[in-house]
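Continued from yesterday's entry.
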Amino acid sequence: MNPLSKIAALGAMFVALGGFASSPANPSATALAPGPVVSVPTPGSQAADNAATPPPMTGHALTAEDVAAYFDGLLPDAINRANIAGAVIVVVKDGQPLFERGYGLSDVKARKPVDPDKTLFRPGSISKTFTWTAVMQQVEAGKIDLDADVNQYLDFKIPPYDGKPVTMRNLLTHSAGFSDAAKDLIFTDPKRLKSLGATLNGVTPARIFPPGTTPAYSNYGAALAGYIVERVSGEPFTDYVAHHILSPLGMSHSTFAQPLPDGWSANMSKGYHLASSPPGAYEIVGPSPAGSMATTGSDMAHFMIAQLQDGDYRGQRILAAKTAETMHSQQFTPVPSLPGMAFGFYQEPGNGHRVIGHAGDTTLFHSDMHLFLDDHVGLFISLNSAGSLGAAHTIRATVFKGFTDRYFPAAPAPERPTWKDAKADGQTLAGRYVNSRRSDSGWLRIGGFLLGQAKVTATPNGVVTVSAFRGVNSLPKHWREIGPFQYQEVGGDSRMAAVVEGGKVTRIMTDDEPPVLSLEPVSGAMSATWNLPLFYLTIAILTIAAVSWPAAAIIRKHYGHSFGLTGRAALLYRLTRAVCLADLAFAGLWFWFMSHKGSAWLSSGNDGVVRLIQFVGLVGVVGAIAPLANVAGIFTDASRSWWAKVSSTAIAVACLASIWFAFSLHLITLRIAY
């Protein structure tokens, strides 16, 4: 993958702990192992799903024998082809484990097989469902008010947005309006661990949306909720979860502790980018309630059963039935006709069945959990490798859709006619969009605003294509309008919809993606339609100017010619070329930094490197005086050629464009936050 492609994949990067690695539309923070854009089936609302899906059909009998035959025929070959070391998969039904099996290896070098009872996996953001369960326990106990300003529970302040505070309801539905935060999200040195309060205090992400209005997934928000549990319960968060969730559920092989407790490492699966490559180090999650859990497949069966039985596991209750029902019901609906958010879970399309779930990604581990609520069936899968071209995401999508279609199939739906205003509506949607889940306050804006924007186009007959909404083949899907801004996938069963107010699009979403992100129209000033060509043109002009400087000197020396400029004109010529070099170095250093540092560059340990790069950029910003003065001097000197005037003007414009990019993309900032 070339550097531009890597930076364009920053959207996928934010997936780490995000649980929706399928969309590139930015930032994505870190499935720190970016892969191709894959439409993993995720959110779905019962009301919306039933409206678009015919009554369920009878599928295969959901028996241990049939499930074993199905997954034994699917997973061994899939992980082998994808260069994935190992996987664990668990199915529960009617309050009992139905199927638990490990595939492949937990340690390639030692040839150690995956054991669903003993092998520890990292479920990433599925950890959040434990955090949200802990929150609901405290709501049930009367210690947390869902609609109160969260500042009343904290020892530091979350600033309001337009006078509106953040509430726990906002945190539970990822609608607090935080900019995404990737800094110190995942690291490997335990010495860098801080207390939960110290991790969160002083690094509050920018507020970019009014609370309760826009889906914008937030690891910081989930960690903040965990810290509130810690504050109101009087127990460290890790201990609280152990005492009030893990222990009652008999999850004796699960922990949020980092690093792992003594004696646990022997059962910890190695994590890999590829099974054929060396394993990575144990990942430390900075905002621990957002994704630090280690668990086994068998333990996850206990948790799924408790959720499916409205808080009860073999007589041990972690939530009152009413609380669990509230937690599982739709609470936030960004687009009325599409899936919404429950408290902490996102709703998923399930062929007319009511399904909620969550996904989880660290750099190395990739997991999904799906709960078929009314069928009392749960499905959990975790893979210990990203795999070739990010294949872990494709496998998870295939497993969920295949399982759903096999055991809970839907009858073929009659094709709805194309909406009468499809042509006009397609033109209304056409344009550039940016992901609502994005880093708005730091240098990661280059991925979302310059190289990661989604492009919506429409054919003359109104068929719409969204570059960010792709299938498992990594190709953009095509969408046919079947109602006012309601779209059906051409040749598929996915749905897409837009919110249009006053003739202007405010949001586009699809049920292929969780309802924790949406596409929002990008402002004209930040549109890649003109910014991206300007960026490439700027780099080209700066490169030609910088290279031609020594090249011209070499040619003059070879032919014995003297430099034709003297005095102030010669000084401005040289200073202008030096500024071009500084601007090129600034751009080149950022590309190097983002393309080759891996997950290590999402670390406060690299603040010194960032400051050095920003210093080089400041040299270019201040030095822009030279090319501007050079242009003024050339145009007032009648002896200078037309080429000198044209080239000097182009260079001055390129230097000014460099300043635009430096500040509009937040590449130079007072505070290093991202």
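--- second protein ---
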Amino acid sequence: MSPERGPAGGRETAPAHGPDEEWWRTAVVYQVYPRSFADGDGDGVGDLAGLCRRLDHLVRLGVDALWITPWYPSPMADGGYDVVDPRGVDPVFGTLREAEELIAEARRRGLRTILDVVPNHVSRDHPWFRAALAAGPGGPERALFHFRPGRGQGGELPPNNWGSEFGGPAWTRVVEPDGTPGEWYLHLFAPEQPDLNWADARVRAEYASVLRFWFDRGVAGLRIDSATLLTKDPRLPDRTADGPHPYADREDLHPLYRSWRRIADSYPERRLLVGEMWLRDPARLARYLRPDELHTAFNFGFLQSPWDADRLRACIDATLAGHAAVGAPPTWVLANHDVTRTATRYGRADTSFDFARKAPNDPGDRALGTRRARAACLLTLALPGSVYLYQGEELGLPEVTDLPSEHRRDPMHLRSGGTDPGRDGCRIPMPWSGAAPPYGFGPDGSRPWLPQPDTWAPLTVAAQRADPASMLSLYRAALRLRRTALTTAGDTPSRLSWLPAPDGVLAFRWADSLSCWVNLTARRLPLPAGRRVLLASGPLPDGYLPPDTAAWLREEEPTTG
């Protein structure tokens, strides 16, 4: 592939990796939600052919790897996280052969591939669950799941008080083969996603095989969905406010992940395991990152923090301390396919994120949110560790808050009776080019599976590539400078040193001579003397750092007279 030219005219080359290095310690990983990335066949749904054709965008951007959310055969009750076959590819996305070719082609371009593995639950259409329903109570097929008789005189009440993450009870009653109301099965998410019983050796053996299946095909790592929820208290007791949690962050998870680590380390080029873990306590999170368990885990505390200097610094300090205790690299993420887009969240009165406090139909202050999202780009990319970048964040895409109810697909929205906005607003298909939908997402005339706003023409990749002041140009420049810092002798951003700064300002040295300054106050502040500006998230009039602006500075060499 011929090299491309960046916005400043520099040559761009694909990232180079050695076979044995722990590449994940400093990698920037681009998250692809395949249904919404690029549609290669015009059916309105993104697919592997479309993704393969757009790999150039990722190379030009300057990322190290791509993480692809589930492409497995699925009825799509939860966007592909209800898996029928963890070794297959849903026909809407392509074929297993296309998946193998994509993995190989991405690697030829210097991009490693990370896939999702979904071990907590399967689809209701999975062969195991179909067999369990047909077997009836007491059959060995039901031991693969959590089937229990109900409470109440006729078993009409759920077996315990657990609630679903998507609202309502975490139990659904089945009709037995003889037509009578029967047992209940557990689903921490949607009823279409029955939870597996990880106390059963058959489940453990199956997923060890699944890991090897994808590692053997060149996948560089696996992201473990709902990684703290797999094992349950075998008594399935009621959840209480003061007792131990019956299904989250249990001690019996650690032996499982140690066994998976042995599989990952058995390959000549070691494979990555990264956990999706919504744990507020950094010390609890770090226990999963001990040297013989997972390599990394998502740092959702950073994503959930408001745009506030003290809160962000506290999160950064706690994250670094917790990870340092076990020798693991931290990860930093601003957004993903489950949460409100950064440019919208940072423009609201409440700039934090919590699933219980999502703000339906609140677009926020678009200009303010974008300005803060630009500053957050430089803050995040200067922090030591790895970064996960959700598709469209490099374009500054906003949350689509006015999506009509009839177009919403997310079970969070549907099971709430419409009170929860769900996650569709951050999953709108990518705009690539053109003045009107589908903006190059698919062929002209095709209709994307979720409608795109009519106002997105200035946000397309093509429009931003031509604009040196665009969000895309900022990300490309920042990633290029970050890579230079990582490869320059003596500049290894593996730790952080805070610098003296006014209240409301985050300032730290992230490489031997580089520092990051972020102004989270409402007033402009003078930039420190003796430093040269390498990159800024916005204009710096008269040598001042305006509100909600960040800058990367390099210390000037002292002159001799």
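The longest helix spans residues 366-382. The chain has a mean pLDDT of 92. Will compare against the first tomorrow.
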